[in-house]
Each structure stands twice: as C-alpha cells, then as structure tokens.
Amino acid sequence: FMIDADSGTILFSKDADKPIPPASLAKLMTMELVFNAVKGGHLSLDDEFYVSENAWRSGGAASGGSTMFAKVKSSVRLDDLIKGMAVVSANDACIILAEGMAGSEEKFAAMMTERARRIGLTKSVFRNATGLPAEGEVVTARELAELGLHIWREYPNLYHYFALPEFTWNKITQR
Fold it and tell me: Which of 9, 19, 114, 148 is spaced 20 to 30 A from 173 at the CA atom?
C-alpha cells in the first residue's frame, strides 16, 4: 500500500486490508503512544524508566532479539529509549516503556489498541509493545501507512528520531 503523503492519493494497493502480523512495525504504535504522551506533557524526554528483570530477559541481550543492551535494574532516559526503538528496533526499550507507562506490557498493548481506534485504525490489534509473534496481533498494510502518516503529521518535532542513522548509549554504538 502506497500513498502520496501530501495529497493522500493512493498510488498502489494490493491486499491493503488483509490482516497480517505486524512484526517490528508494531513499534510504530508503541512510538505513537510515547510521542502522544510527550506532546501532551505527560512525559519529558528527560524522564527515566526502570529496567525490570522481565524487560531485560524478554527484550534484552538474553533474548537474542534486537536490543539496546539496557542493564537490568538500571534507569534509562526516555530520549535514549526512543533512539533505541527508532535506530535498532530495540525490544528491551519497548518493554521498558510499556511497563513504565502502563505497569505491564499487557496493559500497554491494550492501550495501543485503544489508541489505534481513536486515530481511526479499526482493524489493528496489538498484544505487545514489540511486535514479537502473539496470537491475535494483526495490522493491515493500509493502517500501517495511515499510522506512519499520522506520526509524521502529528509529531513533527519528534519525527526526527526516525532519521537517525546511529546512536551511542552505554558506550555501545549501534547503526
């Protein structure tokens, strides 16, 4: 599914409304909730989030997936967590934020689905903050494009994170 961002004109569409697993593109919805909280003044880029053992085990280096290598029982600034998600698709960053914002990843996923409905995404269902395989978690190509366009339009002062080619955190540079 491809649209012209300025006009909204559909340029290409094939199976645009077919439910598919989001994989790491679910992180766009995670980012939308974070950006919305920053824009609303509920979070500051300097806020720190605690790294639980669950976040470290499920999304950190021990999990074998994409990670920013957050250390268990440490704290990480929101700005760094956003960079971890945007640059390296860090699962630990997503789980840390989910737990910090909602108390658990399960509750955060419910918030993701609820927020998706509020911005007009009627078919997307989220089960976790990372996009790791989960039964019932689906999106459509059309709704992913709409979500990307929404983020681009709604958060122009935060969108720059998606253009970062690399970031260094905890003495580790990742591209």
Answer: 148
For residues 27 and 131, the answer to whether their CB atoms sit within 8 Å is yes
- Check: pTM over 0.85? Answer yes or no: yes
* Cα angle 56-59-61, degrees, rounded to a multiple of 5: 70
* Identity of the residue numbered 92: D
- Residues paired with residue 2 on neighbouring β-strands, in sequence order: 12
Regions of the chain where pLDDT drops below 70: none
Q: Cα–Cα distance between 122 and 145 in angstroms, integer?
A: 13
Instruction: Return the bridge partners of 75, or none.
Output: 50
Q: What is the pLDDT of residues 87-125, one digit of tens each?
A: 999 999 999 999 999 999 999 999 999 999 999 999 999
Q: How many CB atoms neighbour CB 41 within 10 A?
A: 7
pLDDT for the residue numbered 65: 86
Residues acting as catalytic residues? 24, 27, 89
Q: Residue 70: name the closest of 43, 100, 44, 35 by CA.
A: 100
CA-to-CA distance for 87 and 102, rounded, in angstroms? 23
User: Which residues are within 8 A (CB) of 93 and not within 5 positions of it... i.e. 6 or more apart?
Assistant: 59, 68, 70, 76, 81, 82, 84, 85
- Classify burial at 130, counting beta carbons within 10 Å of its beta carbon; exposed 0-12, middle 13-18, buried 19 or more: buried
